[in-house]
Design a protein that fits this description.
Layout (H helix, E strand, L loop, with lengths): L2 E6 L3 H10 L5 E6 L2 H10 L4 E5 L7 H10 L8 E6 L3 H11 L2 E5 L3 H9 L15 E2 L5 E5 L3 H10 L6 E5 L2 H10 L4 E5 L6 H11 L8 E6 L3 H10 L3 E5 L3 H11 L2 E2 L5 E4 L2 E5 L6 H20 L4 E6 L7 H16 L3 E6 L1 H8 L9 E2 L2 H20 L1
Parallel strand pairs: 1-2, 1-3, 3-4, 4-5, 6-12, 7-8, 7-9, 9-10, 10-11, 14-15, 15-16, 16-17
Antiparallel strand pairs: 13-14
Helix pairs in contact: 2-3, 7-8, 10-11, 11-12
């Protein structure tokens, strides 16, 4: 299992540094901005180690530590205390409450790693571990389906990708294809004549190069018995017809370890552009949301201080999209990123109708948004200078 580390600090900068320090290791980093939030996070997902700041608003480190050690479920979690140079003596006085070690801020990366290694196991990511494909890689997708309309639907639905979609209709054709080309993913109709789909599954799983290939079964929703048989046999997943192409693409990308973040995020000099495609849905918003925190933190780490959400191709503001935008804006605010929105007349009008969005800064073009953010930055510098 991955080592889970909770960092509790009111400084976003410190939390970001911690996340960066542990990036080379197989760790899950949880975050909290004060002691009260830290207790909540620890109770919901108990970490293997807590990095706890002493001085924080709402609930400081001492109070959190005291409550932590009083909770039978949490008291065994080791704590590494963080403190400023002037707080060393204070930390030594509270050490009897129960801390494993302490570290003086500002700290060096190697010091934090060294002290953490004394408490928990830190495994570097294996160099041999499979790397995520690029979204531009021409991956090989095999569709085994005897209904040409379904093959065409999948090919049309994925034509905007760089994937090569190959369609065959029989077991023999699929076997012949796989003997010459190693597919990155296979979709096969479970209703092919006889046991063709299941025989193909056995053949691929027996092959040295295809035993790990994701294999998705295609089935109509009402064929529950066939579906259960495929899942018990070991099919990677089941796709039901009619096919939701946006959901299928997101699922395929995840199974192929494909980094799709470039579909939604693009760094343009000093601005991070967050763009949403015209074809959306729950799967697309969930996929973009999964990349959000990491891409924003990476941008700040690279010196980018501005973000623009591009909604020019969005035709209507559904509630799921509204929630996504509110979350995105708050994430930018939390990290200190200036944010602006670009939208068409419909989106701008609809946003004005919601209390959460009516005060947002909207522009009609990317150039206008960049100019507006630059002006805001200049104004802020002038105020700071005064």
């Amino acid at each position: 299992m991955r080592t889970k580390i909770l960092t509790v600090d009111d400084s976003k900068t410190v939390r970001m540094i911690v996340r960066k320090v542990f990036k080379p290791y197989d760790c899950e980093i949880l975050e909290a901005g004060d002691g009260a939030e830290g207790l909540t996070v620890a109770a919901g997902s108990p970490p293997d180690l807590i990095l706890l700041d002493v001085t924080m608003p709402v609930m400081d480190g001492v109070e959190m530590l005291t409550k932590l050690k009083a909770d039978p479920r949490l008291k065994a979690i080791p704590v590494l205390m963080l403190t400023a140079e002037g707080g060393r003596d204070h930390v030594l006085k509270i050490a009897k409450i129960g801390i494993r070690d302490y570290i003086i801020k500002p700290f060096k990366d190697e010091v934090l790693i060294e002290k953490a290694k004394r408490i928990v196991e830190l495994k570097p990511f294996a160099e041999s571990a499979p790397k995520a494909h690029s979204s531009l890689d021409p991956l090989e997708i095999l569709v085994v389906e005897d209904k040409p309309a379904i093959v065409q639907l999948i090919q049309d639905g994925l034509k905007h990708t760089s994937w090569k979609i190959h369609g065959v209709s029989t077991l023999s054709a699929a076997t012949e294809f796989c003997s010459g080309v190693k597919p990155d993913l296979v979709l096969v109709s479970l209703l092919l004549p006889g046991e063709a789909a299941f025989n193909l599954f056995r053949t691929l799983r027996a092959g040295a190069e295809t035993k790990q290939t994701p294999i998705l079964g295609l089935i109509v929703r009402t064929e529950t018995a066939v579906r259960e048989t495929a899942l018990k046999m070991g099919f990677t997943d089941i796709v039901t017809k009619p096919i939701d192409m946006a959901a299928l693409e997101a699922r395929m990308a995840k199974l192929m370890n494909l980094d799709m973040s470039s579909r939604y995020f693009e760094a343009q000099k000093d601005v991070l552009v967050i763009k949403l495609p015209e074809v959306r849905g729950s799967a697309v918003l969930a996929e973009a949301g999964n990349y959000m925190k990491g891409k924003l933190a990476e941008s700040v780490d690279n010196g980018i201080g501005k973000a623009i959400v591009d909604l020019q191709h969005v035709k209507s503001l559904e509630m799921e999209l509204l929630q996504f935008l509110v979350h995105t804006r708050q994430a930018c605010v939390d990290l200190g990123l200036l944010i602006a929105f670009v939208g068409n007349a419909v989106i701008i009008s609809e946003c004005k109708g919601f209390e959460d969005t009516r005060s947002w800064s909207f522009y009609e073009s990317m150039d206008d948004a960049k100019s507006g953010l630059n002006k805001t930055t200049q104004d802020s510098r002038q105020v700071a200078a005064v």
